Amino acid sequence: MGDPTLKVRDPITDLLRRDRWVVLGGLAALTLFTAVESRSVGDAMMRIPSPLLCVSPLTRWGPAELATIALMWSVMMVAMMTPTASPMVLAFAGLERRRIGGTGAPWGTTSTFLSGYLLVWMGFSVLATLAQWGLHSAAMLSAGGMKMASSSVAAVLLVSAGVFQFSSAKSACLKHCRTPVGFLLSEWRDGMGGALVMGVRHGLYCVGCCWLLMLLLFVAGVMNAAWCAALAALVLAERVLPGGLWLARTVGIVLALSGGALAAGLW
Hints:
Elements (H helix, E strand, L loop, with lengths): L19 H28 L15 H22 L1 H15 L6 H31 L13 H14 L3 H11 L1 H8 L3 H25 L1 H4 L4 H16 L3 H20 L4
Helix pairs in contact: 1-2, 1-3, 2-4, 2-10, 3-4, 4-8, 5-11, 6-8, 10-11
């Protein structure tokens, strides 16, 4: 196991000096590609007369329907969470560049780190697919199969997401996500395997931080592009803006009040 601290003098300002435009360009390209693919998958699903568009619990989803839904969630999560990973990916690329010195570029290990992170979100996508399958089987989704039909269940989900914003689990996971250099220095492992493990561990913290926020897609509509963009922006803001924890708690209050208003039939 290497010790990158010996090669870092000013981790806050110096780490992001090199490689940032290449890394950010790659992240932007990946986000754009997956966003386009997500829209294409959604449009294709809307054109298919299949059980995906029927809420009857008597109509079963088969392997093809489950695979399509899982693909939709995976592509959507990659598009939403790749920008969120940018501070950590930039920090990793900077540390790796200094670790290898002038002997090469950090693109291989950086890509592996990002792959590990996205792999966790793809795992989350599988779980979200199973949740959607369960909601479909219980006839709790709208006619398009993409939005909660029960306002009571939607209200519970909103309040739960709001309360979670104040939890110690949220605070602990958000702390790791807000301190990229600290996370990497404490978790550092050399090589491709080490990069993959670090990416997976960061992904787990990220999922732990905002999994309930992602499930709010069932409230506004799984394929609601504006809601997806808003959630992605919120998750990124919690990580990079000063007072990110207070932002998270402010959002928690808004979500809880919205859930209460929905339960009371006020909207």
